């Protein structure tokens, strides 16, 4: 029953997406749905694609893993739309651009900058898409026992076919539908869980006891190679063989299953707080690096400013009829996202009480779908597990649609401009590449990889958009230099951290969460290089188009601009 819950979601995605087929006649239809999407429908679609696996599953999992400080993530996600409402939404729509690279050329008059921006889109979309498909495979394996590759292939096929057939219009209908579906399938099980666990567990969730001793024989399957610090001798059953572990550090290999006896002390993982401990209950993010305030600010900068730079989010505002509608879309989106994120607290706190062993296994991303069966092992537990699985799959599909659309646009509209047919074919081929990348990525941390995409977006597109919209002196050379520095100081630094694997501390924090220095560095580079040059001819006209209302007699129809006639 649980596995079959995915089937209606996939079928609904394909059937609803088919509504966009008849309206597909041009590149504009494919990329921005002819700019005729109403604010309410657009806000639902924006919320649908934004509530990804990192939101539906990841935040609750991060609460179980890192403590209540993980609730800063939804604060940053939602705050990003407030900043977008004030700084970006309406001016972006007034450019008449179809993509972010399109905006770069329209504002700064540089084909070279357009192509570099398209490469950045590929980096961000790749970092965001792979964990979506990976989470689809992990969740389907958890709830049904199906091979990991099945979930990836199903998600890839559904997304690419829907997009190739109906483009942005299909994506809009599907994402709006899936937002409503996700909201219902997230809230109803949360209410049932609160009722089913009883008053004692609800009270414990508000003040969870430290997870220091296994209350019963506990089986733990480690998703990744995990270093454990054992404080007292303990005999575990490792892969069916009793093994005594002396005090000290031990490595549990990935995919291994260890059974800990009742009463044994829970081993600690370096850099991860025990659920319920004082560090776990501190309202700051740490990750074991010893600088919780710095880590919290870094995540807030990445999530709030990164939202403004996500290409699949920005393109949504190009689908609005005008700048005023784009601003209304952003305002409605803030309310819709806030109503969803309230319930991530329920899953995270209950997971820390009922599923603390996920702290050891590294499978905290699955806490949401694992909770119902832990509360009720009968039909009710299976039913709500099925509902949450369907909601999780809807999250994968909705977000992947927007990202795949941005990726296809970057390739077939900005790097290698072509016809509508090439856009459709690119969507299919790009999905195939992402599926191949996701197959060996079974052990990645979904939340960490998605956060890295936000850090890259905050360090590249955010400075280019904010300065491009609000500073007349920005030059193409300054934007190029700033984005290059931002890309190297975010993606490059995080890649270096994966190679060096530094011990927990300030170095590990800066290498793993670089937004706190990479974003200011990108801004300063753009400003410094631009001040040494002159704005391109036509910059004043471009700035007028950004800031004058569309009804002004001094502003021509932006949809007839050179950026759109390609």
Give the tags.
single chain, 566 residues, 24 helices, globular
Describe what this molecule looks like in 3D.
- This protein is mainly α.
- 67% of the residues lie in helices and 5% in strands.
- The chain is built from 24 helices and seven strands.
- The strands form two sheets. A four-stranded antiparallel sheet has the order 1-6-3-4. The protein has a three-stranded antiparallel sheet with strand order 5-2-7, with no helix packed on it.
- A hairpin with a 2-residue loop joins β3 (234-238) and β4.
- α5 (72-87) packs across α11 and α11 (292-309) packs across α23 (515-531).
- It starts with 5 loop residues before the first helix and ends in a 19-residue tail after the last helix.
- 57% of the residues are buried.
- The model is unreliable at 560-566 (pLDDT under 50).
In short:
This protein has 566 residues and is mainly alpha-helical. It is built from 24 helices and 7 strands.
